[in-house]
Every structure is written in C-alpha cells, then in structure tokens.
Amino acid sequence: MSSPSNKSVSPKSLLSVQTIVLSAVSWAVLALLFFLLFSTSAPGEERPAWYAIGTYIFEEVAYLGAAVLCLRNWRSPQIVSGRNVWLGIGLGMLSYFLGNLVLGYWELGLKQDPTVSPGDLFFVATYLFLGWGMLLAVLSRRLNLENWQWIVVGAIAVIGGLLAWLIAAPTQTAQSFLMPPAIAQTAPAPKTAAPPKAVKAPALKPGQSAPPASTPAPATSSTPATTEQKEVPAWVTSVEETLAPLETILGWFYVVSDLALLIIATVLLLAFWGGRFSQSWRMIAAAAFSLYIADIWLGYAQKHIPDYQTGSLPEVFWVFSGVLFGIGAALEHDLSTRSRRTGGRRRA
Predict the structure, then answer these.
(1) How does 177-215 read in b/e, with b if 16+ C-beta sit within 10 Å?
(2) Cα–Cα distances in Å, from 210 out to 200, 214, 345?
(3) How large a percentage of the chain has pLDDT more than 90?
(4) CA 117: distance to chain centroid?
(5) Is 229 exposed, middle or buried (0-12, 13-18, 19+ CB in 10 A)?
(6) How many CA atoms within 13 Å lie on the side-chain side of 104?
(7) Region labeled Disordered — which residues (predicted)?
(8) pLDDT tens, residue by residue, 317-342
C-alpha cells in the first residue's frame, strides 16, 4: 500500500529526490573523510597511486551524476526555469567529467605531468557551457536587486578579482604588491670569508723522494638505475609540445572564467533568495563557489608551493561542486514536477 507521500513522486523517476539528496550528501562526506585521512604524506614522499585513483573516482562519480540529473531536467518539459538552462549546466558537467577522465589517463596511465593536457580542452568547454547556462538563468528573471545587494555583488567581484589576480600574476609582481620595497628588510651584507692562507710544504730531505701524488680512486662502474624510466610515446610528446604555448592563455582564461562564475553565482543567490525555487539555486550558487575555491587553491599551490602534489585537502571542493550541482538539479526537477501536478489538480 503506497503512502500519500509516494504519490508526489513522478512515476518516471527511478529515484526519489530524498534518495538522490541523501546519496549525494553521503558521497560528499565519504570524499571529505578520504581526503582528511589520506591526503597527508610524510615529507619527501609521494602519495600512493591508490590515493590519486580514489580522488579521481570521487570527482568522476560526482560530475557524471550531476550531468545525468541536469540533462534529465533538460529533457523534461515541466522544468520551470527553462530547459536550455539545464542543457548548458549539464553539458558543463559532462565536459568536466570527460576532461578529468583524459587528465587522469595522462597523469596515472602515461605518468606525465604537463602544464597543458588535452583535458584542458574539455575544461574550457566546461566553463563556456556553465557560463551559458547560469547566465540564461539570470536573464530569464527580472532582476530587481536592492542597492545593498548590488553593493554585495560589487564587493565580491572586487575581492574575488583581486584574489584571482594575486594568484595568477607573476610571483614577483604579487610579492611587490603585498610587500612594498619601503618595508623590505635590509639584511646586512654577509662578511666575505678570508682567503685561505698558503701552507708551505716541508722541505725534502736529501735522498728522500717526493711522496706520490694522491691518485683518484678508480671510478666504480655505474650501477643500473633502480627504477626504469617508462618510455613516453612519440604522439604524447608531440601533443604536449603543441599545447604548451597555450599555458599563459589558459591560465588567464581560467581566472576570468572563475571570476565570472563567482559573480553570476552571487547574483543567482541574491535573486532567488527566499523564492519558491530558491533551494535549488542556492545549491547551484554554492556549487559555483566550491568550484572557485578549488580552482583558486590549485592556482596558488602551483605557484607558491614547491613540488606541489595534487590531491591535497582543499581539492575536495571539486567533489563538493559536482555534488551540489547534482543536488540542485534534483531539487529543481522535484519542485517543477510537483508544481505542475498541483496546478493540474487545481484546474480540475
């Protein structure tokens, strides 16, 4: 016997919204525990390979699930906020999934650590599709923000832009901005070491032969390397050399895109605050914030932490971003289908 609450679930939905949200939250908690427990390694040691595989699995499952839920909204004619909105966000999630898959193969399968990989082409598509979908969500509503809300948007844009510039700018430029030359410490000049005194060799006694010069020890035969360097396929090297000139352009593209998504997410958060469909768009805004945090951290770590290894704790925000996009899509689908059914019963 079905309960009345079960009747509110769409018959085409395989999983209820409660099950989807609970599964997504559980996945995020498991990811957080995984990063907390295993992201720390001993100084000078690399993280084990299984940890890197685990981080990719957490991200891939989160973004693939989000893509499926967003594209489900796109195929549903009952979605209130517009199907193209969810088409853009869904393609963004799918592009991130494919880009991360390619990057994982490049790093774990080919043992390469390039500055630009073919996965970046999909990451660029991620930002373009996400920006398109979220911008459609903003333009589809009549923005009627109050003055203090525009001030909040402006303040977040300035702070986010300044932070992104400090991360993306050359290290010397950022340091000169944070520490002007006037307050730079003037360290005393180090004392030059006195030249070593010449030691007079003792005179040889008559009939005493000079001691033989110390001959260098014979060179020992070089031992074979303990680890064999895996030969890199020629096509991999060719692809990396082709994409390498794009490093600077892609770096600034990610910075500008992160800032644009941050501003759009803030506008979405304020525009949908307190409305009937505010729950889903709060999740979307939080997902964009999580993506911004993870990207900014990676940019900072690659520039200021020597020999940085990916997989540190702040990178769990990439998992959070995928999870939150999925939760937002599930809530939007549930609210839209319930709204249409309620309207149909009233008209009857």
Answers:
(1) eeeeeeeeeeeeeeeeeeeeeeeeeeeeeeeeeeeeeee
(2) 15, 12, 114
(3) 36
(4) 15
(5) exposed
(6) 19
(7) 188-232
(8) 999 999 999 999 999 999 888 765 55
Please give the model's pTM, rounded to 2 decimal places.
Answer: 0.77
Q: Which two tokens stand for residue 312?
A: 């540190």
CB of 93 within 8 A of CB of 127? no
Q: Please give the Cα distance from 314 to 39 (Å, whole number).
A: 10
In tens, the pLDDT along 294-314 reads 998 888 888 888 878 888 899
Which residues lie below 8 Å from residue 165, measured CB to CB, with a gap of 6+?
255
Distance of alpha carbon 142 from alpha carbon 82, whole angstroms: 14
